[in-house]
What we know:
rod-shaped; Translation Initiation Factor IF3; two-stranded antiparallel ribbon; alpha+beta
Amino acid sequence: MISEKGEQLGIMSLREALELAASKGVDLIEIAPKANPPVCKVIDYGKFIYGEKKKAQESKKKQKVIVVKEIKLRPKIEEHDYQTKKRQMEKFLIEGNKVKVSVRFRGREISHPEMAQELLQRLTNDLIKVGKIERVPSMDNWSMVMVFAPATK
């Protein structure tokens, strides 16, 4: 048996432990039921649960959520549009997000996947300072997909 302050109170019967907890106005909680004899602690259960919730909140605050942003392109994209999309991707990568790039084909464009390959290769060369390739270009139905991850610092 362990007290609220962490001191060992020794081995005692269940009845004695319950009486001790009741006299102090706190709860008797079983910590290690498989130990021989089982280990119990005399604490205020409400305060214990409150502390656990606070610890969980603190650890949740420190987590960084990685978001996957998607940019959709076409194989025949104009230069200005390309530069705009590239700037958006750089911004996303600098913020620490992943970027999924989809080059969508329409109609007969599907017969020229090399256009999308060239576009994605150009993007890779332009974004090499802020990102790295996480998933190489691959065909997915009517689009070619590639994923960039932020570069390690």
